[in-house]
Design goal:
By secondary structure, the chain is of the alpha/beta class. The chain contains 20 helices and 19 strands. The structure holds ligand NAX, adenosine-5'-diphosphate and potassium ion (K).
């Protein structure tokens, strides 16, 4: 996954260091685009307008137009800038297009009114106006053209990224872009296709290979990757026939309070459902009866209660370390005590520690402890919790999700799971893995508690921490997708449904 600048560097490496001609890459890009869309177009009825801008995105548009016309599609080509403004590889492909015997309509000479009138004749628009070279806010006449297209009934296929969106994400205040039904991006997904609201303009997204050698991508090394189904099936832990409960991890969950009894239940159940060998729940004695009645498989560690919340763990770090392979702390803890036991864990528990929800609230006071902690620490904030931890506004975090989570993870040496649509898992080294599963049915209380249990389960069963977290995040989202694809309405999915369908989700993956 790349920023605009990284994509330019990749292109430059392929062209200057490896020697691939820019015109050839453009030809590949255009042909790959056509291969991707022809199954969606009915040759008999589709009336297509290709809108071509002055840069290389427009150059792709000429290749696409030539290829579609050669195949017998009904295509009108609208060149937006005056002919002489088209330069370089785009010029080359414009000349090839014209010399192949095809014509164009010059927007420049007809102007916007003529364009508006003719737009009603088309069923489809191919948007080759602006690509990764777009900067700032839309200028005339692109702004007017895009407004007209968005008002029309045309279905829009966009080349590389929707015109008006920058590859890195766009200021919400100035957001104005073509609304695509499909985007075909070249070689690498662009950052903005995983950031809302720009994502809404992309429609369905496909990534196509245009023949840029992998080496060029490796050299630029963006450190950002999608975590795909193939990655999950390749790395999910497999249960050995000879294994016993101790082989799959003994986990401790520190969660719950008198007024939040559901959160620890969800976390514990999810942890069991994802294969943990033994799970103990540490919870205040005042909340224990209500919680225990809903948990059959777990064991309990009862803590002294103050204000209905855990006052102290009443167990030394040495004992914790002997008994448990990893600890998750936070869901439903409450915020009315001092949370000193969290500081003690950060300092003295030398095994993996996951901190979520109210655990993150207390963590804010103990952040310096993370700077000296050497063992694996995983933080799972949503945007609001991350804003609180970093003293930034939610708006600021939303706009710079990738950068801010990377800075935080590197500074504190933690694995940071910044939740939301397209959850980002960042390693202490700053590598980022983006999750693409899940949907808005997850935007409901309790779903984060489920994720925490799932992360705990997998970090006890796989050595590689990032893989474990990314797999848990993938499966969590996939459970939501499974539900909405199998008859659940997204309004009515609740957190415990996710836990209940994990067996089917795992089964589907393992048999795919
Ligand atoms: N460089 C390469 O090797 C390849 C590039 N490809 C295509 O080339 C695109 C990038 O090409 P370019 O760098 O030429 O960039 P663009 O095609 O995005 O075009 C830049 C043009 O847009 C204008 N522009 C920028 N901001 C504007 C604004 N706010 N309002 C109105 N006009 C504005 C600029 O003046 C310039 O004329 C990619 O997105 C992709 O589609 C592909 O052909 C594959 C190979
Ligand atoms: N619109 C959405 N699309 C996809 N995933 C979402 C969306 N909204 C929330 N989620 C996911 O749901 C979970 C919510 O976690 P969180 O906010 O901590 O919930 P809670 O604290 O209530 O348990 C996260 O895993 C997040 O990524
Ligand atoms: K475009």
């Amino acid at each position: 996954m790349v920023t605009g600048e990284e994509m330019r560097q990749i292109d430059r490496y392929a062209i200057e260091e490896i020697g691939l001609k820019e015109e050839l890459l453009m030809e590949n890009a255009g042909q790959a685009f056509v291969n991707e869309i022809t199954s969606l177009l009915d040759k008999k009825t589709a009336k297509i307008a290709v809108l071509i801008g002055a840069g290389n995105n427009g150059g792709d548009g000429f290749v696409i137009s030539r290829s579609l016309l050669e195949k017998g599609y009904h295509v009108d080509v609208w060149l937006i800038p005056p002919l002489e403004k088209v330069k370089g590889a785009a010029r080359y492909h414009m000349d090839v297009y014209l010399k192949s015997g095809f014509g164009l309509i010059s927007y420049h000479t007809i102007a916007n009114e003529g364009f508006m009138q003719q737009l009603t004749n088309y069923s489809h628009v191919i948007d080759a106006l602006l690509g990764t070279g777009f900067k700032g806010t839309l200028r005339s006449p692109y702004k007017e053209i895009i407004e007209q297209v968005n008002k029309s009934n045309c279905s829009v296929f966009t080349v590389d990224l929707p015109s008006g969106i920058t590859a890195d994400g766009t200021d919400v205040e100035t957001l104005m872009a073509i609304k695509a039904s499909h985007t075909i991006s070249f070689q690498c997904p662009k950052l903005s296709s995983f950031i809302y609201p720009p994502r809404e303009f992309y429609g369905n997204l496909s990534i196509v290979d245009i023949g840029i050698p992998k080496l060029a991508v490796i050299k630029v090394s963006s450190k950002r990757h999608l975590w795909t189904e193939e990655d999950v099936t390749r790395t999910l832990p497999v249960r050995r026939p000879s294994s016993h409960k101790g082989s799959h991890g003994k986990g401790l969950i520190i969660a719950g309070s008198k007024s939040m009894t559901g959160a620890p239940i969800l976390t514990t159940r999810a942890c069991h459902r994802l294969g943990a060998g033994l799970v103990t729940l540490a919870t205040p004695c005042s909340a224990h009866p209500a919680i225990a009645s809903q948990l059959i498989e777990a064991t309990f560690h009862l803590c002294p209660s103050k204000n209905g919340e855990i006052d102290d763990l009443n167990i030394s770090n040495d004992v914790l370390e002997k008994r448990y392979d990893a600890i998750a702390i936070g869901p439903g803890l409450g915020r009315n005590n001092n949370g000193f036991f969290i500081e003690a864990l950060i300092k003295g528990y030398h095994k993996p520690l996951i901190i979520d929800a109210d655990g993150l609230y207390y963590l804010k006071y103990f952040l310096p402890g993370l700077l000296v902690r050497k063992q694996v620490t995983i933080l799972t904030p949503h945007l609001g919790e991350f804003a609180y931890l970093t003293n930034e506004s939610i708006k600021m975090i939303e706009k710079n999700r990738f950068q801010l989570s990377k800075e935080f993870a590197e500074k504190y040496g933690v694995y940071l799971v910044l939740k939301g649509p397209y959850t980002i898992v960042t390693t202490p080294e700053g590598h980022q893995f983006i999750n693409t599963t899940g949907n808005s049915s997850l935007a409901k209380g309790g779903t984060g508690d489920v994720l925490t249990g799932m992360v705990l389960a997998l970090i006890m069963q796989q050595k590689d921490v990032q893989m474990a977290i990314s797999n848990a995040t993938f499966l969590h989202g996939r459970a939501a997708d499974y539900l909405t694809e199998n008859g659940w309405n997204s309004l009515s999915v609740v957190a415990s449904d996710l836990v209940n369908v994990l067996p089917q989700v795992l089964d589907q993956l393992q048999n795919s």
